[in-house]
Amino acid sequence: MDLDWVATFFKNDEWLIDYLKGMVKPAAALSVVLLAVALSYSQKLSLEGDMIYSVFRSFIQLSVIGFVLQFIFNQENAGWIILAYLFMVSVAGYTAGQRAKHVPRGKYVAGIAILSGTAITMFLLIVLNVFPFTPRYMIPVAGMMVGNAMTVTGVTMKQLRDDIKMQLNLVETALALGATPRQATLQQVKRALVISLSPVLDSCKTVGLISLPGAMTGMIMGGASPLEAIQLQIVVMNMMVGAATVSSIMCTYLCWPSFFTKAYQLQTHVFSS
């Protein structure tokens, strides 16, 4: 692997000067955060510390990821794409599992579901030649899909477990009459999927009418034609719907071994907390 650019990049201080110059506008935008902190203090919300910590953490994370992406974009090794993708899936699986913390092995379930949904979608995009398999395209695309699938998967798992808990007697009655776990929880699965996917579908219905999405806004601000930005945004919305749907459905199937025994009985301890 050619790392000469790294030595050249850090050999002089020009990179630091350019970076600091570029941070002038983000620093100016802190005035909005200070306004939020002041309002929180005046209303006694006790959120000032969280606001400052969140902004500082986002600054560090984005700064680090900026340098990491600069490094990856200068490589021609596809392994960096896969490594970055797996890292995003791991973090997303952990985060979604934390949301559904009462689901046993929730982090693994969420991780596998997100990996399945996003990998299938990315594979189709590559095969259909929608995006070239390069870091500059695939890493941002993967990030958008993984982030969206993470939210949907976490909501699906939590909602499914909560609905089964609320209707435990109905599910047990269906199982006693010979229903399979899928048949006994069909209505709960449908409800969980509808609730988790509704925000994604609502954003598709209102895209461009209420707000301009991030990918489209970035292209327009970068000087691209609005028509080109629209074409990209259509692709982004389509792939997010596809990845979210596959991931959410997959996680319902993966939850069943945690909810039911091999004898088709409910794992009561899962729903006792």
From TrEMBL:
Q: Which domain of life is it from?
A: Eukaryota
Instruction: Report which residue ranges the record marks as coiled coil.
Output: none
Alphabetized UniProt keyword annotations: Membrane, Transmembrane, Transmembrane helix
Query: Does this entry carry the keyword Transmembrane?
Result: yes
Position of the signal peptide: none
> Which residues are listed as membrane-spanning?
23-42, 54-73, 79-96, 108-131, 137-157, 230-256
Entry-linked Pfam families: UPF0014
Lipid metabolism as a keyword?
no
A cellular component term from Gene Ontology for this protein is:
membrane
Membrane topology field: Multi-pass membrane protein
Q: What are the subcellular locations of this protein?
A: Membrane
Question: What family is this protein classified in?
Answer: Belongs to the UPF0014 family.
**What is the protein's given name?**
Protein ALUMINUM SENSITIVE 3
Tell me the organism.
Answer: Eruca vesicaria subsp. sativa
